[in-house]
Amino acid sequence: MKGYYCRFCGELLTQSFVDLGMSPLSNSYIKPDLAHAKESFYPLHVHVCEHCYLVQLEEFETPDNIFQDYAYFSSYSESWLQHAERYVNKMTSEYQINRNSLVVEIASNDGYLLQYFNKNEVPVLGIEPAKNVSKVAIDKGIPTITEFFGKNLALQLREQGRQADLVLGNNVLAHVPSVNDFVAGMKVLLKSSGIITLEFPHLLKLIEQIQFDTIYHEHFSYFSLTTVDKIFRAHGLRVFDVEEITTHGGSLRVYAKHEGDNRPIKHSVQELLIREESAGLLNIETYAKFGEQVKRVKRELLTCLIQVKDEGKSIVGYGAPAKGNTLLNYCGIARDFIEYTVDRNPYKQGTLLPGTHIPIYDPAQIKLTRPDYVLILPWNLKEEIMDQLSFIRNWSGKFIIPIPNVLVV
């Protein structure tokens, strides 16, 4: 039964985490002339392993199909660019990453982060499987390999003498169906004294803040520090530091080293492991209750939108993120509620959202139509978006923030 066994430890998966029904691929934006063509939907049913507590989704589509022509470009978020630049400054100042180092980023996207190392004359290499996205990075002058990362690619790079002082991956771990191959590859690629940093949404935040919309088919797994620590140890790596950061509704940045490296393990690691246990992440009941919490949020959001429409008011969306497509499809929110959405990414403009077929326009459309309410789909960027759209206050417009509880401001 392929897909029903834990992708880390191999145990049979029987415990449900949440069932979000049938959903299309969240980044499969539709061209208007194909609006009446057949559209594929897949079960969005997440399980949790009762042995290692890895939360995971069955693989219905291969990464090759999902990421061949990818619609997500990191550089369209100003706050994300600032986050990347701060990270580069930290690594160069605190970890002596300099022009004698090699930095390799896995899932380097459009060069949003490596460009800042480039400015500091630090040698870089990007690995990005989406051809349309990697081309943008290459055009910026960032050397990029257009392949999926795993142990085989890492061995090839090592044979070429290209081992890294710093291996980093931001929001890529969730996208990897073969997590053991991925982590084994990082170990091969890393110099004996090198470090790994990975950022990923924190499972504890997902549960506490009911962030079910971060679940979609392009994400295969959802991680706690507890589980990441187990996976790294199984491959001869050790987490030596962890930071809690605000990105994507609450993420972790873990720092890892080779097991034989004598770098000290900081108190932050044990402190967070203890906190995760106290929060119930080693108790299967914590996971079993999540589905009912999700249903409550769905009812709250639908109640709010129905009331607004019953008052004769107009609602549009802001953003066309993958998470927004999970939210809209699970809640059954289509053009009867949301007239259109807008996005700064020209790649998405002029297309339709998968499943709901809500049209995507340039953000200038909001000034033209003056909607009463704007539903913020990338709620993790709500401050940035409300600042960009502060002009809707001129006609008494309001924002609707759906997660973790419906908020109208």
Automatic annotation (TrEMBL):
<dbReference type="InterPro" id="IPR013691">
    <property type="entry name" value="MeTrfase_14"/>
</dbReference>
<feature type="domain" description="Methyltransferase putative zinc binding">
    <location>
        <begin position="6"/>
        <end position="67"/>
    </location>
</feature>
<dbReference type="GO" id="GO:0032259">
    <property type="term" value="P:methylation"/>
</dbReference>
<dbReference type="Pfam" id="PF13489">
    <property type="entry name" value="Methyltransf_23"/>
</dbReference>
<dbReference type="InterPro" id="IPR013630">
    <property type="entry name" value="Methyltransf_Zn-bd_dom_put"/>
</dbReference>
<dbReference type="GO" id="GO:0008168">
    <property type="term" value="F:methyltransferase activity"/>
</dbReference>
<dbReference type="InterPro" id="IPR038576">
    <property type="entry name" value="Methyltransf_Zn-bd_dom_put_sf"/>
</dbReference>
<dbReference type="InterPro" id="IPR029063">
    <property type="entry name" value="SAM-dependent_MTases_sf"/>
</dbReference>
<keyword id="KW-0808">Transferase</keyword>
<protein>
    <submittedName>
        <fullName>Class I SAM-dependent methyltransferase</fullName>
    </submittedName>
</protein>
<dbReference type="Pfam" id="PF08421">
    <property type="entry name" value="Methyltransf_13"/>
</dbReference>
<feature type="domain" description="C-methyltransferase">
    <location>
        <begin position="247"/>
        <end position="404"/>
    </location>
</feature>
<keyword id="KW-0489">Methyltransferase</keyword>
<dbReference type="Pfam" id="PF08484">
    <property type="entry name" value="Methyltransf_14"/>
</dbReference>
